[in-house]
Amino acid sequence: MIVFNQVQKSYQVGGRAIPALLPTDMTIETGEVFGIVGHSGAGKSTLVRLINLLEPPTGGDILIDDENITGYSAAELRAFRRKVGMIFQHFNLLSSKTVADNIAFPMKLAGIYSKAEIRERVQELLARVSLTDQADKYPSQLSGGQKQRVGIARALACRPTILLCDEATSALDPQTTQSVLRLLGDLNKELGLTIVLITHEMDVVRRVCDRVAVMDGGRVVEMGAVSDVFLHPQHPTTRDFVFESESVDSQERQQDLQKASGRILRLTFRGESTYQPLLGSVARASGVDFSILSGRIDHIKDTPYGQLTLSLVGGDLEVAMEALEAADVHVEVVR
Ligand SMILES: Nc1ncnc2c1ncn2[C@@H]1O[C@H](COP(=O)(O)OP(=O)(O)OP(=O)(O)O)[C@@H](O)[C@H]1O
Q1: Which of 36, 40, 46, 196 to mutate to test the pocket of ligand 1 (most atoms within 8 A of CB)?
Q2: Whose C-alpha lies nearest to ligand 1, atom 5?
Q3: How confident is the model at residue 120 (pLDDT cuts 50, 70, 90)?
Q4: Separation of 220 CA from ligand 1 center, angstroms?
Q5: HEC sequence for 127-167
Q6: What percentage of residues in the chain have a pLDDT greater than 90?
Q7: Does residue 24 line the site of ligand 1, with CB under 6 A?
Q8: So what's the pLDDT on residue 68?
Q9: Most buried residue among 109, 148, 186, 232 by CB atoms closer than 10 A?
Q10: Is 36 in the pocket of ligand 1 (CB under 6 A)?
Q11: What is the pLDDT of residues 235-245, one digit of tens each?
């Protein structure tokens, strides 16, 4: 478990302290995939670099599995860093080393593994990220997705319990992004690995994360289960991210809603209720007529969800709303 107690960070620039992370409390549970989303400069990288003390905090305490890491000696810090792997947007591979040597590098650096152990672990990792046949290639001979898989294998070399991912899919095309996210999801399940993942795309959070923190101006402005934050965003920054991921222009959406008549409801279906043929029976029971203004069915991790914005006219609106809520549909009155 990773616990932040009033952790803060300022950078000294020309004798002035520039705040990057304001005092923050946060808990990341062991074995979860935790997303951190925010615009450029929000403080995401700073927050993540505090977890492995690449940046020392200027205040507060960081506890990992109940140990306060802020007081670690240099030797304790070296041992601790082996427990925390990291992958990067631009992969940060060593161009003069082969794939196998890149993966072996952190183990050699640690100086505590035998040659045979390193050889065996590298083979195991190459197989795990499906790159056995690329072992002797150099990074320049690989695609972006392959480079990131080398990055992941290298990050796992010393068997860490935490994996930090700094915009790990931002340089990849959508299909490669999917396969890298699937690999991260599988590793999380297989190894019980805690994954902390920075991104500026809510879609990445939706696909792979259990919980998410939304950052803005050095603060965590919203935090919770992805299904809650994504389906019912509270903070304006979170709403922007969710609309952006749905390719919706919030101004256009407002204009569309103004043109619609009657009462406007936003319905959220989760899990099996997503597939129920509910609207026809609700319309018949309540005498309400409806038209669909927008709709979407997708998944949050493995759970299906649907969202529909409807305008309703005539009939008994209260009966319609009661019937929807009785079927476990979340009903939000937009207007
Ligand atoms: N080494 C540094 N020295 C001085 N200021 C820094 C340093 N690193 C970050 N900052 C500043 O701290 C703030 C937060 O930066 P940070 O990189 O954590 O944000 P971010 O959300 O990760 O942004 P991006 O998505 O662009 O990487 C920014 O204002 C940034 O300019």
Answers
A1: 46
A2: 11
A3: very high
A4: 15
A5: HHCCCHHHCCCCHHHCCHHHHHHHHHHHHHCCCCCEEEEEC
A6: 68
A7: no
A8: 95
A9: 148
A10: no
A11: 999 998 888 77
Helices (H), 162-287: 174-191, 202-208, 226-231, 236-245, 250-259, 279-286
Residue in 191, 210, 200, 234 with CA at minimum distance from that of residue 300 = 210
pLDDT above 70: residue 248: no
CB of 56 closer than 6 angstroms to any ligand 1 atom: no
Q: Over 90: is that where the pLDDT of 279 sits?
A: no
| Structural domains in the chain, sorted by start | 2-244 (3.40.50.300), 259-333 (3.30.70.260)
Q: What are phi and psi of 228, to 5 degrees?
A: -75, -50
pLDDT at position 130 over 90 = yes
Q: Is the CB of 48 under 6 A from ligand 1?
A: no
Mutate to test the pocket of ligand 1, among 8, 11, 165, 166 (most ligand atoms within 8 A of CB): 11
Query: Quick one: which H or E segment has residue 294?
Result: strand 289-300
Residue with CA at minimum distance from ligand 1 atom 7: 11
